[in-house]
Amino acid sequence: MRSVRFVTFGCKANQYDTQLLRETLRRRGWTENREADLVVINTCTVTAEAGRKARQLIRRIGRETPETRICVTGCLAESEPEVLRELPGVDWVLGNGEAKRPAHFLRQIGEEVDPEELGIPSGITEFAGHTRAFLKIQDGCNKTCAFCIIPKVRGRSRSKSADELEVEVRGLLANGFHEIVLCGIHIGHWGLDLGQNLAFLLRKLVDIDVFDENGSPRPWRLRLSSIEATEVIPSGTGDSVLAVMAEAPDRIAPHLHMPLQSGDDETLVLMNRWYTRKEYLAACDLIRGQLDRPAFTADVLVGFDGETESRFVNTLNAVHEAGFARLHVFPFSPRPGTAAANPRSLSSPAEVRDRRARLSQAASEVELIYRESLNGARETVVLEGWTGLSGRYQRVTVRPEDIEGVPPAMIEVELEVERNDSDETRLIGKPMGVEEALSQ
Ligand code: SF4
């Protein structure tokens, strides 16, 4: 029996791609094992660090177990195939186009493929080691942000059809998942190539009902992964993601990860982003007007080419104004092959360190304010034991004394902010009644 080990770097889309290959090989009798015959390394190239770690791992496997065959896939395989092919132990370097179609992947690694296998389902049915399933709805991106290599290595947006995705969602729900995270490279571009839009897909998916063996409806929800603020709100007269979220608050988590990148208009232009600080903040206000205390999370880049102290302060202020529930702060590192590969005016490492620290401090402050604003809010929590992740992306604890017997997988609660002697807060979920939670 042949064995495989998967190692995944990077984003949710990459994790989905790995799961697709995992199920492809498992159907053919492969087992998963740490000491495997084949190691598939699904790489990322979004930062220089991600590439360095992947190369380091490949070298280590090649050195320690030279008999292991190595297949490198993913974005690094797309951006530097020649470098990877030279590394010891590497047998295959498969770019994103070659590795993402199961039959193609099998042929590349020397497996015989029966003609009927060409119709192998191109979706996943589970998500190894996770309580939430990541479902990739599209790949690629039609934008050209100056710091980003992704459009070069993933190409333009290609969407999976709404019918295929419905089948995939039903399969994941049947296998017990309570939360499905719709992910991709630029999910707001879903449907552009099909003459549809993301709101259309969401309307189709929120209508899916699943039932347990007693015929009772089983609660479940969708969550959107990263989506641009300008693609949540209505543009023109068409349907919008926000409209569907407002109509189905129990089916779509009120959490939006909307990359900010910078809160300074001049920097946004240099980054080739397409919105102003005012437009981003106006989108937050509009969403807040339609959803109950939505959680906004975001990415911000520090030290981008041309960043001055006053430009940075604009970003710092925008973080306070947006009122994020969580902020991810990344230092800018120029990537070869991008428009910002040759910066002209970089801040010093000490300045970048200082700005990162100030942004992280601001993030802690706004995160606390947001958490405290949730006192009394109704939430659904996907539990793993006595704690779990709420729709608003908060870790919530349920007390054993509030529940009879084993905790359910998903429960509706009212939130209570609890503060300890050291002034740290945590969120307690007071069950609204398991019966009620299950009857959603
Ligand atoms: S929107 Fe910009 S940052 Fe996001 S994947 Fe596309 S080019 Fe990269």
Do you know the CATH topology of the largest domain?
pyruvate-formate lyase- activating enzyme
Helical fraction equals 25-40%
- What about the largest sheet? 5 strands, parallel
> CATH homologous superfamily of the largest domain - what is it?
tm_1862 like domain
Bound molecules: iron/sulfur cluster
Number of domains: 3
Strand content: 15-25%
Q: What is the CATH C-level name of the largest domain? A: Alpha Beta
Radius of gyration: 23 Å
The CATH architecture term of the largest domain is Alpha-Beta Horseshoe
Overall outline: globular
* Tally of contiguous helical segments: 15
Average of per-residue pLDDT values: 92
Q: What strand line-up does the widest sheet have?
A: 2-1-3-4-5
> What gap, in angstroms, lies between the N and C termini?
45 Å
Total count of strands:
18
Spans where pLDDT lies below 50 across 5 or more residues: 434-440
Class by helix and strand content?
alpha/beta
Search tags:
440 residues, alpha/beta, Rossmann fold, pyruvate-formate lyase- activating enzyme, five-stranded parallel beta sheet, 18 strands, 20% strand, disordered C terminus, binds iron/sulfur cluster
